[in-house]
Structures are given as C-alpha cells and as structure tokens.
Specification:
rRNA processing; alpha/beta; S-adenosyl-L-methionine; rSAM; 10-stranded mixed β-sheet; binds S-adenosyl-L-homocysteine; transferase; EC 2.1.1.192; TIM Barrel
Length: 346
Amino acid sequence: MSEKKDIRALTKTELREFFVSEGDKAFRGNQVYEWLWSKSAHSFEDMTNISLETRKMLEDNFVINHIKVDHMQRSSDGTVKNAVKLHDGLIVESVLIPTESRTTACVSSQVGCSLDCNFCATARLKKMRNLNPDEIFDQVAAINQESLLYYNHKLSNIVFMGMGEPLMNYNNVLKAIEKITSPEGLGISPRRITVSTSGLPKMIKKLADDEVKFNLAVSLHSAIDEVRSEIMPFSKAFPLKDLKESLEYWYAKTESRVTYEYVVWKGINDSKEAINALVKFCKYIPCKVNLIEYNPIDDGDFQQANQQAISDYISILEMNDIIVNVRRSRGKDIDAACGQLANKKS
Ligand code: SAH
C-alpha cells in the first residue's frame, strides 16, 4: 500500500485542484483548507460541514500529521513549556511566556540543533531533522490555545528562539511564517515575529533579498572573533566582518533594526575590551542590545558575570546612544529558559 500523503503539504491551489480532479467543486478545497489551518482540525471527522462521503474519501487519500502536546509543565512565574510529539515520535519543545503587556510563543525550528554553542543545552542534542512548516505552525497554534485558556487572550508575539537554527531550515520556517501571518492561518502581524539566528551571513542576505517583514535577532555574545569562535565554534567559518557585511546588507534592504542577543559571562566577555568591541559593532547599523541572563546548564564552564560587569555594559552602551534592555529569564524552574530546551522532564 502506498503511504498516504500529508494533506497539509498541499497549497490551497493544489487542494482546489485535487477536488476538481475528484469531480467536486474547487470551493471544497477552500473549506477543507480553512479546517486545516484556521480551525486547526486534528482529523477529517472534525470537518462537520463536509459530507461524510467526502470525509471518507479524504481519509482514504491523506493523513493529517498533527503534533500532539505530550507533556506540559507550568512554571511558578506562569511560563508554560510544551513537549510536543511529532508524527514520527520525535520530540521538540515550545514555550509560552506571559508578561503584563504581551504573551510570547517561543518555538522550535529543528529537532535538536546542528550548531555547537558551548553554553546551550540544545546544542548537546544531535540534530535529528528539520521541522516541517505545519509542525512549526502547530506549535504556535497550540500555544495560542493555551494562551486563550490560561490568560484569556490571544498570543501577541512569536520568537524563533526554541530548539534549532531557524536559518538552517530556511524554506520551512518562511513557509510556516507565511501561514502564521496569513488571515487564513493565525493572522499575526510579521512585525510581532522575531527570528533569532546564531549569525549565518549568507542566509541573512537571503532574508534581505526575500524582503521578509519580520524582525531579526542575532546571537552575538562577543564582538571579538577569537572569543566568539571559542564559545560558538561553528562561527570560525563566519568571521565577524562577514556578519557585519551581511547585517549592513540586511539594513540597506529592509531598514529594520537588528537585535543583538548577548550574555555576559565571567572571565569570557566581562572586560572593558569586550564592551568596547560591542560598542564598535553596534555602530555599523541601527540596533538594540538585549542582555540575556545566563541560564546555567549542567556543568560549570560558564558563569554569569557579576552585577558590576553588567552595569558597565549598560552604562557604556547607553553613553554611546545604543538601546539596551536587560532580559530576565522566565521559566527557569522547568528548564524552559533560553538555552535550556533539551527534552528534560522534571
Ligand atoms: N539558534 C538560534 C535560536 C535558538 S537560541 C540562535 O542561536 O539565535 C535562543 C537564544 O538563547 C540565543 O540568543 C542563544 O544564544 C541563547 N542561549 C543559548 N543558551 C543559553 C543559556 N544557557 N543561557 C542564556 N541564553 C542562552
């Protein structure tokens, strides 16, 4: 028996054509498409305005590979972490982060990660595979439902800061964002979506060429090549001058300010030299810096710098008119904070 096709791999046009080829009306394709995307149907049975006969025909031809929230944990600060099971049994994690002003979904783009940032727990997992567009979309839809359930309002923001490197799963991430932003999907504005990359110059340029409308964040952590390639070994292949050039290209095309994510660690990047290098890097294009609190992973190689070093970063950046925010960690007690996603149940 041939394997049934995942119906959500079909575009709306393809779905309309399928119904015509079955002797039905193209319009039926629109109805089914709406069930699949805006109504997040998990089975053909759910599609109550479609005739039983048509539902049976769909059942015979297709599957809906919907993700399943396998395990959910709620932190004392309100953060919710979902361990999500994919149709082939693999697991990824996504997180709902509520604050007074917004509710943010942090979603994964790959199962595991192919990069090797020494301070990140996800990097210890082998990369198993890229997520499909519908698997990324489903994480967002699941968190949107949880947000409605627990906080009585819809999701307001999405960050691609979960497991994986989004720009190494470029096409699927862009397709997922297309669905998330389309009125037939979740209708969330691209201005409320941020894709975070470890900094792959070629792919940053591609984003600019594709004129994407979402925000870009770059995990910088050091503006000194030797330090950066020590803590993020893959970046040896992408020196800061290439990153700088790609960011200038991005800004020239999009006029969209970039966010640099930055953790300050004791003995690694807590010197004046490190701060001055960051200030210099920040002058290349309009940007802002998010200083992220370090979330310790099991060993002790990395330690959060002391408060004085962090205050020095803030005052020197501000003195140079660079916007800087300090990002407090959320969901630490359930291993849901940045860099802690590693399929651990506690
Ligand atoms: N691969 C993408 C997105 C995933 S990581 C990227 O690198 O941007 C999301 C953010 O968490 C990145 O800025 C990453 O550098 C940061 N991060 C990773 N491990 C961390 C840790 N242990 N503590 C704090 N931030 C961490």
